[in-house]
Amino acid sequence: MFLRFGDSIAPMPRTLTLLLLTAAAIAAPAHAQATPSPKVYALVAAIGNRFEVVHEVHSVGSNLPPFRRSAHAVNNNMVNRLVLQGLDQAVEKSDPGSTRVYLFTNPVPSTIERVVEDLRRMDRSKWDRILVALPSYRSMGNDGLPIRIQGLGIFVQPLTQGGSSWGDDRITPGTHGVRPISGPQALTPEGEVIAANTFVAPYSFIEVVALDPKTLGVLERNVSHGHRKLTDDTASARRIFDGSNPEFLANQVIEVIHGAVEAAALGTGLKGQVEVREKGPVKER
Question: In this predicted structure, what is the pLDDT of residue 16?
Answer without folding.
Answer: 27
